[in-house]
Amino acid sequence: MIDSLLLQLMLVGFLGVGSQWVAWRFRLPAIVVMSIAGLLAGPVLGLMNPEQDFGELYKPIISLAVAVILFEGSLNLDMKEVKGLGRPVFRIVTFGAFLSWILGSLAAHYVAGLSWAVAFTIGGLFIVTGPTVILPLLRQAKLKPRPAKILKWEGIIVDPIGALLAVFAFEIILFLTNNDPSALLMFFAASAFAVFLGWVCGKGVGWMFETGYIPEFLKSPAVFAVVIACFTIADEIMHETGLLSVTAMGMTLANMHISSIADMRHFKENISLLLISTIFVMLTASLTVDTLVEIFNIQIIGFVALMLFIVRPLSIFLSTIGTDLSKSEKLLVGWIAPRGIVALTVASYFASVLLEEGFEDASILISLTFALVFTTVVAHGFSIGWLAKKLGLSMEGPPGVLIAGGSAFTTGLAKTLEDLKIPVLLTDSSWQRLSRARSRGIESYHGEILSEQTEYYLDMTPYEYLVAATELDSYNALVCTTFVPEFGRNNSFQLSLSNKEGDDLEDLVHTIGGRVLFEEGASWEELNARVENGYVFRKTTITEQYTFKDYMKNMDQHAMLLFAKRASGKVEFFTPDMEYKAENGDVIVSLMPPSKEFEKIQEKLEGQRKEKENQKKS
Fold first, then answer.
1. Is the C-alpha dihedral spanning 63, 66, 72, 77 positive or negative?
2. How many domains does the chain have?
3. Are 593 and 559 in contact (CB under 8 A)?
4. Is 69 contained in some domain?
5. Strand 587-592 to strand 492-494: parallel, antiparallel, or no bridges (unpaired)?
6. How does pLDDT run across 342-391, given as a tens digit for each residue?
C-alpha cells in the first residue's frame, strides 16, 4: 500500500491517461483498459484504496467530477442536432426508460433476490448509460450519425433521470414506511428547483458572456465555478438533484449558440477526458477482494444476463414502435447500454442509506452494480464496432481526406484520392470553384467549413486527414487551427505560405495552423500553375523489382512528391521536414511534368490560338 496521497494521485493520473493511450494505440475500448488498470492497482496488487485513503474527500471529489463530465456532455445537446430524431430520442428517454426501470426492478427482485424496496431503488439507477462510457465508445466505433446521436442523447439525458428515479423510489419507500407525504413533496419540489437553478445559471452565464461582463481569460474558470456552485446548491437540498441541475445548465447554454462556449468546448472536452480517466481508475481501485468474489454469485450472474439480453433490447424495441428507426438501428441501440461512473457512485450511496433503514439485502448492491458495469463495459466495448459493421451502421473504411478549397489542383488531388478508393470530400463556400469537382463526379460540399451550421449538415466521421488548400494563407491556418482537436496536429495540413517579397512569415507556420505540405515553395499559386500547364497526377506502385530507391533515381527533376498510400490503407502526405520512404505495396503519388506528346499538343493549340488572334487583328 502506498502511504503518500501525493504518490497515489500521481499513480491515478498516470494509470488513467496511460490507459487511454494504450486503448488508442491498440484500438481497445478505453473503459475496459481503465477498469483493468484500477483493479490491478487496487484489490489485486493492493497498491492503493482511494476510498479509504482519501477519507471524507473521496465522495465529494467523485461527485464534482461526475457533475463536470455531465455538464460537458450536455453542452453538446443542441436541439438542432436532434432534428429528425426527436421522436425516437423522446420515446427512448421517457417510455423506454420507464420500461427499463420496471423490467430491471422485476429482474432484481425475482432473479437477484432483492426485496421490492431495494429492487425498485436500484432498478431506477440501472437505466443510466452516461457520457462517461458512451462517448468513449462512440469515438472508438465510428458509427453513422443517426445511431451515434441517439446513443449520445440517451446517455446524457438519462444519466440524471436514472439517479432521480432511484431517489424517487427511495422516497416512496420512506413514504410507505413512515406515512410522511412531506418527503415525497420535497423530492418533486427539489427536482423542479434543480431544473430552474440550472436554467437560471445557464442563462446568467450566457448573458454575461454576450454582454462582455467576463473577460476572455476568465471565461473557462467562471463556467467551471458556476457549474460546481449549481451542482452543489441543488445537491445539498436533495441528493442527486445536482446532476439534473448541471444537465439543465449545459443544455441551456448549448441552445443559446454563444461563440465563446463553442470556443471553450475543446478545453472542456480535455478536462472531461482527464476526469473520466482518473475517476474510473479511482472507483475500480477502491473495490475490495470480497466484492470481486461476490460477483460470481449465481443470482448476480443471472441478473446481469437478463439486463443484457432481455431488459435492454425489449425496452428499446417496445419504446420505438411506430418510429422511423430501422431494424438495424433498433438492434444496435437495443444492445449498447454500458453503465459507468454514475451507477457506481450512486449505488454505493444507496447501499449505505438502505442498510441504515434496515434493508439487509442492500449489502450486495456494490457487487451487483460492479458486475453489471464491468460486464456491460467489456461486452459492449468489444462488440460495438463488430456489430455496427455487421448491421451496416459503421463508417469503417480507409481513412478519408477532407479538402478545404476548390481549385484545379485540389480537384485533381481529390480525383486521384478517389481513384485510390480513399474517401474524399472537397469543400468550398463558392459554387463556381466547385464546378470542376462536380463535373468530374467528385463528392463536394458547398458551404463555409468554419460555419457553426457545418457540423449539423456535414458528417466528418469518415475523414481522418484535413488539407487546407485555399489561396489565402491566413484562412488555411485558421481552418487547421480550428480543426486540430478533431483531426490532430499530425493529420492537419496546409499549403506552403505565399512568402512574397517583404513578408517575414518564416516562423508563423510553426506556431499556428497545420503542417506544411509537399516541398518548400509548394504554394497555391505554384501548384495551380503547374496543373494549368499540363502537369499530371501520377500513381506508381513500389515493388520488389521497382524499389523506392529506383523510383527516386528515375523521377523527373521537376516532379513533386505529394503523398503515399501505404499498403495498410493509410495516407501519408509528404512534408518538407520528413524523411521520404516507401515499402513494397505502397503507392506513391506525384505531380509530374507533361509528357512530350502533351507538350506538342500544347504547342499546336498555342499556334492555333495565335493564328486566330492575328486573323482578328487583320
1. negative
2. 2
3. yes
4. yes
5. unpaired
6. 777 777 777 877 887 788 888 888 888 888 888 888 888 888 888 888 88
